[in-house]
């Protein structure tokens, strides 16, 4: 399947679009494909490219041109939109990329992935090195999807890259993408977990269920438990979860929660049990590991009332 990736590059070059590194927001993130406020290093960019902004006008998925790339692009869309079904052997929970990146990354207001190819390769502090778009996708697979990596030459991975290239068409290096803000609360207030539980019962149960198990990957994803993201995902950080909640929730009323309410909800959600990431000790190998990762140890501290929230939030 290598010709597919070559086809992407060739198509992009023909239309005058260059996809190389800058810096991505971890609103992806996730993980998503959030994203995670890792330390990043932005490439040196031409002044004209860095200064310009672009209009949000991605090509329609319903109008993919005929040709050898069409099948790969459409397969990539399906893999992003219904990851837990289309790539079930690789996904360890009941989430899809759309769980965080609404509309398979097309939604301008919810962690849009349009233009994402213009950000890779990039340096990510959590990995301690330069990461390609393929490696970033696989990072989400093992963290946000609590699953396993695609093989580097697999049809699935190449299809996702083809799809991301398609929805990034026309986005130059360093362009200011107004829609690609970050889900990151810079100064998270000391949370009240009990208040977060009350808010959850008032506003979140209808979509995410009382036990956090969710009602569907793309309608109300699991927020904790076996079918949610593991605690190595970017969303397992207080600053990321609080920022995402405030920017995107509740559906239809995004931006209405105060910093305190978003922090309270984040603390309640992240204090619940979830899959554990086995490689915490390998993250941030060059230092700078944030304190606000809600690991099993911190979840236990919340439950027994010994957590020091000021210390947890000290790096945000």
General description of the model:
Residues 71-168, 191-273 form the Cytochrome c domain. InterPro entries: Cyt_c-like_dom, Cyt_c-like_dom_sf, Cytochrome_c-type_DH. Residues 276-286 have a biased composition (Basic and acidic residues). It comes from Lysinibacillus sphaericus CBAM5. The chain is mainly alpha-helical and 316 residues long. The chain has 2 domains: 62-165, Cytochrome c-like domain (Cytochrome Bc1 Complex, Chain D, domain 2), CATH 1.10.760; 191-311, Orthogonal Bundle (Cytochrome Bc1 Complex, Chain D, domain 2). It contains 12 helices and 5 strands. A 3-stranded antiparallel β-sheet has the order 3-4-5. Helix 1 (2-14) packs parallel to helix 6, helix 5 (133-142) crosses helix 6 and helix 9 packs across helix 10 (259-270). It is globular and about 60 Å long. The N and C termini lie far apart (43 Å). The relative contact order is 0.16. Mean pLDDT is 86; it is low at 1-51.
Compact description:
The protein is 34% helix and 4% strand. The chain has 316 residues and is mainly alpha-helical.
Distance between the termini: 43 Å
CATH superfamily membership of the largest domain, which one?
Cytochrome c-like domain
What would CATH call the architecture of the largest domain?
Orthogonal Bundle
- Model regions low in confidence, pLDDT < 50 over at least 5 residues: 1-51
Mean pLDDT: 86
Q: What top-tier CATH class of the largest domain fits best?
A: Mainly Alpha
Q: H/E element string?
A: HEEEHHHEEHHHHHHHH
The assigned structural class equals mainly alpha
The total count of strands amounts to: 5
What is the C-alpha radius of gyration, as a whole number of Å? Answer: 19 Å
Question: What fraction, in percent, of the residue positions are helical?
Answer: 25-40%
Domain Cytochrome c: 71-168, 191-273
Biased composition (Basic and acidic residues): 276-286
Pfam families: Cytochrome_CBB3, SoxA-TsdA_cyt-c
Region (Disordered): 276-296
């Amino acid at each position: 399947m290598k010709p597919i990736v070559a086809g992407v590059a060739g198509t992009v070059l023909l239309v005058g679009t260059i996809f190389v590194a800058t810096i991505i927001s971890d609103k992806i993130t996730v993980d998503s494909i959030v994203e995670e406020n890792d330390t990043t290093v932005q490439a040196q960019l031409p002044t004209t490219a860095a200064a310009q902004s672009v209009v949000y006008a991605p090509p329609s998925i319903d109008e993919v041109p005929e040709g050898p790339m069409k099948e790969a692009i459409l397969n990539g869309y399906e893999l992003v939109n219904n990851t837990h079904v289309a790539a079930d052997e690789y996904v360890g929970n009941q989430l899809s990329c759309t769980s965080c990146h609404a509309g398979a990354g097309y939604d301008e207001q919810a962690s849009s992935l349009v233009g994402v190819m213009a950000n890779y390769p990039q340096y990510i502090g959590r990995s301690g090195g330069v990461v390609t778009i393929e490696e970033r996708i696989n990072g989400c697979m093992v963290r946000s999807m609590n699953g396993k990596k695609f093989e580097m030459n697999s049809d699935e991975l190449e299809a996702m890259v083809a799809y991301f290239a398609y929805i990034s068409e026309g986005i130059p290096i360093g362009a200011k993408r107004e829609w690609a803000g970050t889900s990151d609360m810079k100064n998270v207030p000391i949370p009240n977990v009990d208040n977060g539980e009350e808010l959850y019962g008032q506003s979140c149960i209808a979509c995410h269920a009382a036990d956090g198990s969710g009602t569907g990957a793309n309608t109300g994803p699991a927020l904790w438990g076996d079918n949610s993201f593991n605690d190595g995902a970017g969303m397992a950080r207080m600053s990321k979860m609080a920022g995402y909640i405030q920017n995107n929730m509740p559906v239809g009323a995004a931006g209405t929660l105060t910093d305190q309410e978003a922090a309270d909800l984040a603390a309640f959600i992240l204090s619940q049990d979830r899959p554990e990431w086995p490689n915490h000790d390998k993250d941030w190998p060059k230092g700078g590991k944030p304190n606000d990762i809600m690991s099993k140890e911190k979840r236990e501290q919340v439950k027994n009332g010994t957590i020091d929230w000021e210390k947890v939030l000290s790096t945000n």
